[in-house]
Design a protein that fits this description.
The radius of gyration is 24 Å and the shape is globular. Strand 3, helix 4 and strand 4 form a beta-alpha-beta unit. The protein has 21 helices and 18 strands. The chain has a six-stranded parallel β-sheet, sandwiched between helices. A six-stranded parallel β-sheet has the order 9-8-7-10-11-12, with helices on both faces. By secondary structure, it is an alpha/beta fold.
Length: 558
């Protein structure tokens, strides 16, 4: 067995069924092994490596399994890096395999030579070069173990050309089945910490929980709802935490923070006498730059990464453990005590939603031209099934969907790249999500700035006949930055505007059925047709720019 064949068999042993990537000179033995062997892995050829990583990210978020992406040495390794960084910082298990020049040619100036291990070292949870063929299987096992245990994250493996051709002992080809999905090998809470947390909840009068992405990654949605119902506890979420609880649940507050939060949801946090952070880093956006919750409030912090706890707020009870296990243990302790004190969550959550819905309604019905983003959100909400997946880019889509699209089911239905906010993420993430869940409708929502980053992948969508609907908010500007210049720099707009593109014409050239919409009265009909079509579609919406809008963003400048 060669190293290339061993890599294929190790991926197969770990349950990989899909891989996203792009070919290169150094990849030839690996691709030849994929071509010759019977392995059950579908390889989706992408148009650049960055989007291969974003596809693996979307796939991992929706499948519960590590996403696999691959690319060649040199430029391929540098192009794949942005997606790996986003996945790692978002606690999403993505394995990037970058093939490399032969170990025997290092230091002799071979084409595409690059110190890949040094490049990926600060940006991954686990990282290695497979220089010793006999160690390849064990190092692949280590990568999967790292990705799926503790706080999930990204891993990188460099696969040199000579390793791909060298012999590997077939007896070493095996995998630990626990590491085929995440989270694996969950860590439980200290019973003393559970008791201390229950004491604080017993004493609290107006507690609130803020869920980050942790409960969704952990599969703790049932436990979140059970605790909310037991305590009548209001549950707020970060943008990444959407799905921790259905937003139609009586105790659900919705998104808080400067991106997607509104004054009514912020008030629920500000009036709290106890805040429970659950799988949440309490970063700058969630906390309005550490001003909400207000300093001095009592804090319980639950996170699988102990380094997160206490980084931003003094913590009264720290519980470094898996969210699902912590919430189950806390529920059992409170039920054992016969806890009956409610936190008035239904009333507080309903009041916040009512204020938000009243403000949203006239904007969603507006016949203004250019089309208001709120009208697009309302039209999609009326058309999409409850199990639909939406992948949203930063800029215009993220705050509007976070504030106004009310998710009716718990679980992962919304994807956006909150760690680094690179434009061009949503289209590829939607492709990965569709690959993981082909039976539900997937929508990719982007600004026209993002469209310019990703439009080459429309060829990939067409080639694979992915029935994804893309929505483009077209306003011919990098809107978030223009809004920041508007409020923070005296309306001095500099280098943020660009020429308007006919995105429908561009997508049509790739073979995507496309529409351009300028009149809000025709929006619903076009969306109906686009969502019902059995192939890839795109709707180019001539929309209001962010700096002129009533966007749910309290602070534009980070």
């Amino acid at each position: 067995m060669t190293g290339a064949e061993a890599m294929v068999r190790m991926l197969q042993a770990h349950g990989a069924t899909h891989m996203f990537g792009l070919c290169g000179d150094t990849t030839l033995p690996f691709y030849d092994a994929l071509a010759r062997l019977d392995h059950g892995i579908t390889h989706i050829l992408t148009r650049d490596e960055r989007h291969a990583a974003y596809m693996a990210d979307g796939y991992a978020r929706m499948s519960g399994k590590p996403g696999i992406c691959e690319g060649p040495s040199g430029g391929g390794a540098t192009y794949i890096l942005p997606g790996v960084v986003e996945a790692n910082e978002s606690s999403v298990p993505v394995l990037a395999i970058t093939t490399d020049v032969a170990t025997t040619s290092r230091g002799r100036y071979p084409l595409t030579e690059l110190d890949q291990v040094a490049l990926f070292r600060p940006l991954t949870k686990w990282n290695a070069s497979l220089d010793q063929p006999d160690r390849l299987p064990s190092m692949v096992r280590a990568a999967f173990r790292a990705m799926t245990t503790g706080r999930p994250g990204a891993a990188h493996l460099a696969l040199p050309f000579d390793t791909q051709k060298a012999p590997v002992d077939p007896a070493e080809i095996w995998a630990d089945p626990r590491h085929r999905a995440y989270p694996a090998e969950r860590s439980g809470p200290d019973p003393a910490a559970i008791g201390a947390a229950a004491d604080l909840l017993d004493a609290a009068m107006r507690a609130v929980a803020i869920c980050g992405g942790g409960p969704v990654l952990s599969g703790a949605c049932d436990e979140v709802a059970a605790l909310a119902e037991l305590l009548d506890l209001p549950i707020a979420t970060t943008v990444s935490g959407q799905g921790a609880i259905a937003e139609t649940h009586p105790q659900a507050v919705g998104v808080v923070g400067s991106n997607g939060g509104v004054p009514a949801t912020r008030a629920v946090v500000d009036e709290a006498d106890l805040v429970i952070f659950i799988g949440c880093r309490a970063g700058s956006v969630t906390t309005e730059r550490w001003r909400s919750p207000k300093p001095g409030v009592k804090v319980i912090h639950i996170d699988s990464d102990p380094m997160v706890i206490g980084a931003n707020y003094p913590t009264d009870v720290a519980i470094p453990a898996d969210a699902k296990l912590v919430l189950a243990a806390l529920f059992d302790e409170l039920e054992r005590r016969g806890h009956s004190k409610g936190q008035d969550g239904k009333v507080r959550a309903a009041a916040a939603w009512q204020i938000k819905l009243v403000a949203m309604q006239p904007l969603a019905a507006s016949a203004e031209i250019p089309i208001r983003p709120e009208r697009v959100i309302a039209a999609l909400y009326a058309r999409l099934d409850v199990d639909a997946i939406v992948a949203a880019d930063p800029g215009t889509p993220c705050p509007y969907f976070s504030a106004h699209y009310r998710w009716r089911e718990a679980g992962r239905h919304f994807i956006t790249n909150r760690a680094h906010g690179a434009l061009g993420y949503a289209l590829a993430a939607a492709m990965g999500a569709h690959t993981a869940r082909p039976g539900v409708k997937t929508v990719a929502v982007m600004g026209d700035g993002s469209f310019g980053f990703c439009c080459g992948e429309f060829e990939t969508i067409v080639r694979h006949r992915m029935p994804i609907t893309s929505i483009v908010f077209s306003n011919a500007t990098f809107g978030w930055i223009k809004a920041g210049q508007n409020v923070g720099f005296g309306n001095r707009f500099y280098n943020v505007d660009f020429g308007r593109t006919d995105h429908a014409a561009v997508a049509s050239a790739f073979g995507v059925k496309s529409w351009r919409v300028e009149d809000p009265e025709s929006l619903d009909t076009v969306l109906k047709d686009a969502l019902a079509h059995d192939g890839p579609t795109l709707v180019d919406v001539i929309s209001q720019p962010l700096h002129e809008a009533a966007a749910p963003v309290s602070e534009w400048v980070a």
